[in-house]
Amino acid sequence: MLDKIKEPKERKRDKDKIKGSSYRNQIGNAKEDVPKREQTKRAVKGKMSLTDIIKDGDEPEEPPEFQDSEDSDPAWTPAASVDDEDMLPMKKKSRGRPGGTKNKKPRNLIAAAAQGAGINDSDGLGVYPEHPMPKKTKTSHKAKPVPTLEDNIVASMQNSFSAVNDDNPFKTGEFVAIRGEVCNDWPAIWRVDGKTLLQKYEPFEHEGTTLYRNISTYTSWTAESKKQYISVPVKYKSQSQLETVVEFLKDEMTILDPKIQEQCMKQCESYQDNFEVYIQTLISQALDSNFLMEIFQEKDEYFLSNVQTIDDITERKKQKLLQLVQWPASLQGAVCTWPCFNVLREIGPGDAQTRTCAACERHNVAVRVIMYGQPYNATTLEGCQPDPNAINDKDFFMCRICVNRVELASKVIHQKYLMYIECAKRVSEKRTSDPTKDTTCILNELLADENWLNQLFLEVRTFWSEIECLEHSFNVKNLSAQ
After folding, report:
1. How far is CA 52 from CA 48, 56, 239, 425, 433, in A?
2. End of a domain among 218, 252, 286?
3. Please, what is the Cα angle at 113 between 140 and 147, to 5 degrees?
């Protein structure tokens, strides 16, 4: 098993300790203070390596119903087998496990979980084949391959690459506002007019209601400046050749108080050391799929205490959010079960008029949410059977504000999964660039990348703070209603 490298808790995060040989010497000294675990070699059932999968370019296109939709990370299988060339050192002690049985059990469990989750051909969410699949004949009864962790990490990397290179995140005709101005009473809103122009709409009073109309003011925007804008919901009131009047549906948005968010972000900075050990644990799990299970078996206090600290904070945020939104049991169970989802923003007029939001039960449906993925054990990240009550709960129609809250809930509920995927992608990149690189070297290099660690910690603190802002917003509304 991968050597567990323990850094002193009082480690100062200065640049001299994380660069070059000085950082690696520090890691080596830290390891000398910790009883070294005995090691041996362990053969692992062979399978196509991640490098081979990445090189394979014969992947089918995404199903039509999911094209042009906003995707979360794809489905995955935590306990996938690894290639023989990637065998890792393992402890001599067998811990009472019969030889050769440990790999088979998770594999069978994952297969059952994938089938229970409804991952099949019709979903379009199965494993990408190595070569184009031949057309089925009447005599063909081959079972569909089970999605593996490697397959879905590759898909996640491709999705991330596409997102990074998408210079047009908003559609023509969509309305946006500057993020920093949304908190104002009636901020200016803009209509997307092609890839490089925005047309301004200004507020005016009409029969006691604040509406917006277009004016002859335009501004240009670039791929970089588009990050300053956020999509806003509107309702068309009137439209002619000269003037368009809309109503800004501000109540359908969750407005985050920047002062509250900044305060929450600051308070969470004290957990940075815990978070770095948390990420170190997930990197180690990506390098050795038995890592988490073994530190639980050994009661490894160094890793477990830091992981538990982050898990406890995340669980409190999760419970707070679920208490605020008060979703129906079917929706809450689905969000907790399925780690991935697609948001389809183009729905039929019949659905928009006749259906109610699955979360708030109001007649303001704007999107359709399709949930999917591989259910997993939140502690060990091993694949598991899905909640029987959630097997058929995957398809929901929602309003704009509720789908934003579903997205936030998914981030906090599946935080460890999302962070693990990020770690696995970085491990994959390291192994692809140098297949002979030692696993300990990969671990040290990733832990020395402070920009990456800081970015991950920023993402986690951001959605923690968004939940606190949502609670503040609910409290303000309740006070004003009294």
Report:
1. 6, 6, 55, 15, 13
2. 252
3. 55
Within a domain: 191: yes
Question: Does the residue 177 lie in any domain?
Answer: no
Closest Cα partner for 146 from 159, 129, 134? Answer: 129
Q: Let me know whether 157 and 218 are in one domain.
A: no
Q: Are residues 325 and 220 part of one domain?
A: no
Q: Percent of the chain having pLDDT more than 90?
A: 42
Query: Residue 143: what pLDDT?
Result: 45
pLDDT tens track for 327-336: 999 999 999 9
Q: Which domain holds residue 189?
A: 183-252
Number of domains in the chain: 2
Cα–Cα–Cα angle for 248, 250, 252, nearest 5°?
115
Tens digit of pLDDT for each residue in 167-189? 556 778 889 999 888 888 889 99
In this structure, are 301 and 203 located in the same domain? no
Q: 107 and 222: one domain?
A: no
**Does 157 share its domain with 208?**
no
The whole-number pLDDT of residue 33 equals 46
CA–CA separation, 9 and 448 (whole Å) = 16
Question: What residue ranges of the chain have pLDDT lower than 70?
Answer: 1-169, 480-482
Q: What pLDDT, on the 0 to 100 scale, is given for residue 420?
A: 95
Distance CA 401, CA 26 (A): 49
Same domain, 394 and 337: yes
Could you read off the pLDDT of 286-341 as tens digits, one per residue?
Answer: 999 999 999 999 999 999 999 999 999 999 999 999 999 999 999 999 999 999 99
Are 311 and 435 in the same domain? yes
Residues facing residue 245 across a β-bridge: 213, 238
Burial of 174 (0-12, 13-18, 19+ CB in 10 A): middle
Q: Which residue has the tokens 């830290």?
A: 30
Contacts of residue 373, defined as CB under 8 A and 6 or more positions apart, other chains included, come to 74, 75, 76, 117, 125, 338, 339, 340, 341
Polymer length in residues for the chain: 482
Residue 111 lies in a domain: yes
- Mark whether 274 and 248 lie in a shared domain: no
The pLDDT score that the predictor gives to residue 126 is 34
The rounded distance, in Å, linking the Cα atoms of 125 and 78 is 16
